[in-house]
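hey so i finally got around to running both of the ones u sent me last week. sorry it took forever, my laptop kept dying halfway thru and i had to restart like 3 times lol. anyway pasting them below in the order u listed, first the sequence line then the structure token line for each. didnt double check formatting much so if smth looks off just lmk and ill redo it

first one:
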Amino acid sequence: MDSNHLLVAAIDFGTTYSGYAFSTRSDFERDPLKIRANQAWNAGGRQLLSLKTPTVILLDKDKKFVSFGYEAENQYSDLLMDNAKN
């Protein structure tokens, strides 16, 4: 096995929530248990302390990626509210 990797990453696409974690070679050499993960997903303009975000993808009418996670939920909610007003 090649041991020259600079980074190891893991992505968890769950049915409800998703997240990621990673470790760099230098972190591993100093502390093998040092694993980094996103701990502040942006939820509705607030910093939510969570290792996971909803597994939600928002696409536009041409099926192009717009947003993911809490941001996708918030944008979709805004679209529904705008449509309800019209």
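and the second one:
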Amino acid sequence: MCRVLRGIPSLLTTARQRETTVMTALAGENIAFIGLGLMGRHMALNLEKAGAKLTVTTRNPETLNMFEDLGVETAPTPADAVANADIVIICVADTEAVENVLMGEDGVLDGLEEDTIVIDMGTTAVDATRRFADAVEDAGGEWLDAPVSGGTLGAQNGSLSIMVGGEGDIFQRVDRIFKVLGNRVTHVGQAGAGQIAKAANQMIVGITIAAVAESFSMAEEAGVDIAKLRDALTGGFADSTVLQQHGKRMIERNFEPGGKATTQRKDLYQALEFSESELGLELPMTRLSMELYEELIDMGEGHLDHSALIRVYEED
């Protein structure tokens, strides 16, 4: 008993040291973060907790006020946010939004300083990504595309998977930032390679959600308890993160969005567009999955989590 009690102070000291390490991991980093949506707000808070000097901006004034209340510096426009930043992180909804943030009025390029690293962490079309990279480099900056996977839970926990495209030396300069945001960080290749990896990720996720929804619908129609079905499949070759997380959502009918169906549809469309226009490659399973998400959107439920795809089968 005494030995156990004597060990407690050392355990507490170790815990405090770890906490201090996390809080100072990004000390000295001056980061502008643009986009505080479902993913971005958690990512930005993790950077702030790690000791970064953070300036944020977003379109939603309520979210901006929330960050002000937390003591985080805010800016009215992207140009203002990046004025003194060494690193700029963009995490917005789609390709059009990235273009507006970069090249629109009072955009990033209006305030960008020499050698600033711009990182796009959203899911953006590959051809547009290459164009954005050129524009940033022409303005004297450096570019990385670093889309993420792991949903809002991964963003909150700092456990995202991050797929990075861009020059290797630039990647090395910001690797410690990525390690605050995720637990699996991979430099895939040159500019655009991160977005190609994310397209592959979204193909697998979208198709697998459809497969789980379809198999659950078949089993339920046959009178099988789908909660027990999920348990039975766990640990076998059919097991996956999608079965675990999205399957649970389907069972519980909990469709509060982690990743919206509209976003999943957009990502599949981008994968199809890139594959067909640049590679001349048809993706029949991806196309069919996209059409299923379009059915869900047509039902007025595109704002729900992509696991709500099971409702398409219930309608049939």
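quick thing i noticed on the 2nd:
The radius of gyration is 21 Å.
anyway thats it, ttyl
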